[in-house]
């Protein structure tokens, strides 16, 4: 992710349990040079992707082809808008696919990335 402007996308599904599909998501994250975070193991399944615009678009297309149950692109690929505190920190993300087991842990990671409010709004937890 060498560009100055990172893009991100958020996907919600019924669940993420198939290890074969997770392996394909990991491979796509590596192939497209993206940082990917998955909330796997139960319901809901949540997928966050960050990288260059074309990379995020390609990764989202990969997810669509996997035909997840109740697939929802809740936040289309768009420029990342971080909180001021997070912008001051090093915003480089390590390319790859990482799994988190709970929604609470996922929310904490979104907070550390400076996008917690964006995430809560996209997930429908808050209206504004």
Structural account:
By secondary structure, the protein is an alpha+beta fold. The protein is 38% helix and 25% strand. The protein has five helices and five strands, in the order E-H-E-E-H-E-H-E-H-H. The protein has helices at 19-31, 53-65, 84-88, 103-112, 116-123; strands at residues 7-13, 35-39, 45-51, 72-79, 96-100. InterPro entries: RWDD2A-B_C (IPR059181).
Features:
alpha+beta; 25% strand; 128 residues; Alpha-Beta Plaits; five-stranded mixed beta sheet
Secondary structure: elements and pairs:
Elements: E1 7-13, H1 19-31, E2 35-39, E3 45-51, H2 53-65, E4 72-79, H3 84-88, E5 96-100, H4 103-112, H5 116-123
Parallel strand pairs: 2-5
Antiparallel strand pairs: 1-3, 1-4, 2-3
Helix pairs in contact: 1-2, 4-5
